[in-house]
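re: ur question from yesterday

yeah so i grabbed the chain u mentioned. its 132 aa long if i counted rite. heres the sequnce exactly as i have it in my notes:
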Amino acid sequence: MKRSELREQVFKLLFRVEFNTPEEMSLQEDLFVATSDIDMSEKDAAFVKERYEQIASKITEIDGLINAETKGWDTDRIGKVELAILRLAVYEIKFDDSVPTGVAINEAVELAKKFGQDGASSFVNGVLAKFA
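ran it thru and got these structure tokens back, copy pasting raw so excuse formatting
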């Protein structure tokens, strides 16, 4: 799989955080891979799970960074799709040196266009621009 396809799978798994307890998420990881509409190799599935776990371990810190940059839009108010996208992108910008900031922002905007509501891509771009 291409890196952007893997990123989309991580986003889809990360989206489940809002609807499951932390204890349920390990089960959700396995269920996600088993029921994915895309055939993932073992290597790809391992990457998606590992990246999800890296992000999940820093969600509180990532949410704090997002809340510090958004005026009037804390993480409780942001749409769940947009929040999952922002968490992924902020992780890549702040904690993953292998992903250039511009790539993280562009990929997040594309995910927002594909999965978000009208105006989501502009919102995501505006928030992430503050991290650039």
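noticed a couple things. The radius of gyration is 14 Å. also The first helix runs from residue 3 to 15.
anyway ttyl
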